[in-house]
Amino acid sequence: MELPSNEAKVVAFGLFKADLNARSLTKGGASVRLQDQPFEVLGLLLERPGEIVSREEIRQRLWSSDTFVEFDDGLNTAIKKLRTALGDSALNPRFVETVPRRGYRFIAPVSVLSPVATPEPESQTEDVVIASRERSQITITQPHHPVFWSTVALGLAISFLAGGWYYRSRSGSDSVVSAAPIRMRPAVAVLGFHDLTGRRDTAWLSTAIAQMLCTELGAGEQLRMVSGEQVARARKEVAWDREDTLEKASLTKLRSRLGSDYVVIGAYTVVDSPAGPQIRLDVRLQDARAGETLLEESDTGNQSELFALVSHTGQRLRDRLGIDRANGDHDAQIRASLPKNVEAARLYSEGVAQLRDGNAVQARDLLTKAIAIEPEHALSHAALAEAWTMLGYDSRASQEVQLAFNLSQDLSRETKLSIEGRYRALAHDYPKAIEIYRKLRDLYPDNIDYALVLARVQNKGGLPKDALLTIATMRQIPGTASHDPRIDLAEASAAETLSDFQRSLQAASVAAVKAESEGRTQVVLEARAKQIWDYDRLGDFDKAMAAAKSSVELAKASGNEREMATMQHTMGHLEYDQGDLPGAVRDYEAALREFRKLGALWDTASCAHNLGVVYQDQGLTQQARTYMEEALRIQREINDERGVASDLDDLSNILLSTGDLDAALRMKQEALQIFQKLGNRMGESITLGNLAEVYLAKGDLAAAKDSYDHSYALKQQIGYKRGYGYSLSGIANILILQDKLAEAQTTANQALAARQEQKDESNIQLSRAQLAEIALEQGQNDVSVSLAGETTKYFDKQHAPASSTYSYAVLARGLAQQGKSGEALTNAQRSLTISKQTGDLITNFGSQLALAESQAAAGQKPAAVHTLQALQSRAHAAGVVRYELEARLRLAELQGDGASAQRQLDEVHRDAAARGFLLIARKAAGSRAQIAAVAHVPDIPSARH
């Protein structure tokens, strides 16, 4: 469908705006140069977003019938120039998709920025392009009561692109769907009630009264009630005196923070009497826009008649707001907001208060007691489900929310649907959860929270692209809601799931700026956490560390213990990435203590996992295994598949280091299957690289090379630059063993360059140690010794025993080749001593090989033979093919008898060549030729087998 010809056509997509009349393209306000023909192609695609535009249609638009050109070349050039201007890729398109043998399609969400139209007296219509397959028409009706008149300013009508959103039904036909009209309801925030007596035994009434009053005012769905959770968060970020009428400045902040048109605030007093406790309730209704007090109401009643007292107050507020009184049908909903039993109501209210303060353990205990007294109260089960979720027990949360759903018959339609959506999501019934939250969004389109949850569930359910389309609709909601920083956070999460870290970073940065300007500390911290992650994955460690440090300070200032622990955990991650292992241990352990104290299981598992990784790098295998197994146990308990996959991958690294290759292989294959099922390409890429190490240990060089190649390709696709060095270094290692030394040197240098770009100092030194090994195999002993010597000093300072072991082994072998047998022995012994501390069997094999070569160079043949025999036996038992072959080669070279040595070398050559270990095969052939020459035995080629 074409753009209306009588409108100025300024089309927005991503960061770009294209003025189709002025033929100009901008990105973030900066001009982008684009020639006429590529711009013409862009305009044609933007007129029909989501549709295939055939090559013939483009030809007719660009070239008239009497123009003779090489059409294919011309069109290909125009498309290439367009993609270059947009920063797009044919292989990974974000904007222009090639449809083979048919044409092209514009796949990004599109909106048209049109001129201001004349206001309509009653309503306006927006045609909002919310995806490429369905059109949504939104009508905004104005309230008519005088109190409402300034709720929504609707003087301007905005026309958007017609024909953008088509929904492809399962039958394949297209249908146009129009959304229900949006009625912008007045928003009311109940800020809470202050106990003027300060009695601890009646403090629970503050939460109870507020919740009942919210239910009372929300009955009939004429008002949009700001949730208690949002109010609790705002209380930490916007200070107000709960006893007095709010000043206009405070009201303005609250309106900005909560999107509320009105606020309800008040106090209560409990006085004991012979007839039972008497409650005096004082309530004030204020207009958050004008700063005026609209109603002050006081009422008194017996605590046993709390429902009647709150209901009467609620009716007075409804009258002042000009909405219909709640009828008898709503009484059951209002009564269901609290347990009937007073003690259960107290426990429930205290539990909810603890939940809103982030104290999940205390909330769990209180709510469990409330349910024991009154098990039929639905909202108690729903709140307990939330507590279990915060503690990481999704399975228990699922059980509780199912009970809430089964007991929800007396609740409002909105609350029942919310509970069901939560139930379906926790049960991993994502299609049904998405259906429920879409219904909530459509029923209550002025409440952005439902759209946010819908996007989150779509992302969690493996539909991040659908989540991005939902996010696009939120940006078109009238009023300030469309600028909510949580929308940008939702986009960052979806982009991260798609491994589009650049887009995630951009969205998170926008969210951080918006949230900071609004004083929304929690959202700022969430946004910065995503920025840190994205900077880390994109390799900008300086910015990641700067963001982390500022987040630590902000978390401390907020007094939020969980956020402080989270930021310490993040600092540990960055310190680990920069090779500061002691620093990483310090921050990980501090965070782990706090997470355990808070009972935060998911965070505990994540932190224990990372601590296990660091301990493994430090060579503390048993400690590493203990922490990793703790993480795996928790992740299985809370049913976190992604966490389970990560734990399996890293725990199998420990098994690999101890020589249990079969178990390591099974674990890695299980981890890989989980990551592939989840569509987690980063996890898949990392596991593929680690899987290659198992294949290498088992002697399957072809499988190892294929796994490394696949890992590197995936990392390139998703832009995971930090991982490039790992894959390239692994590939270089395979090339060394395949006797492709020049190619190995090139690849190792590429790994070094990738790590230098990331400022990854620890791995930079590891790459230099690898280049030292390559130089050694190329006969450049001086170069090898120089490089290896530098790396040993670095790793000693960093307390990185696994890397130190490798560097000292390479250094010892180089010194042995130089004839410096004494120094060689010293360094080989140093390598062996450190390797024994690590408990890493394969690293230890490398140290034993270096020691044997040093012993042989020093003329200590019996000692060398003894070392090699032990190495051969242990490598054979563990199934580590390379070191068994290396040991056999050196033993054959040390044999005194020419015929026996040649026979053994023949066998080594044959077995090594069959396995693809061509460097060992070449050495075996060379040694055999030397022995044959000395013994004057003809050098007969090895028999073929």
UniProtKB/TrEMBL annotation:
Query: Where would I find the OmpR/PhoB-type domain in this sequence?
Result: 8-108
Q: Which residues bind DNA?
A: 8-108
Q: Name one Pfam family in it.
A: TPR_12
This protein's UniProt keywords: DNA-binding
Gene3D superfamilies documented for this protein: ABC-type transport auxiliary lipoprotein component, Tetratricopeptide repeat domain, Winged helix-like DNA-binding domain superfamily/Winged helix DNA-binding domain
PROSITE patterns to which the protein is assigned, alphabetical: OMPR_PHOB (PS51755)
Record's superkingdom? Bacteria
Q: Which positions are tagged coiled coil?
A: none
One GO term of the biological process aspect? phosphorelay signal transduction system
Which InterPro entries does the UniProt record give? OmpR/PhoB-type_DNA-bd, Sig_transdc_resp-reg_C-effctor, TPR-like_helical_dom_sf, TPR_rpt, WH-like_DNA-bd_sf
One Gene Ontology molecular-function label: DNA binding
Which named protein is this?
Lysine decarboxylase transcriptional regulator, CadC
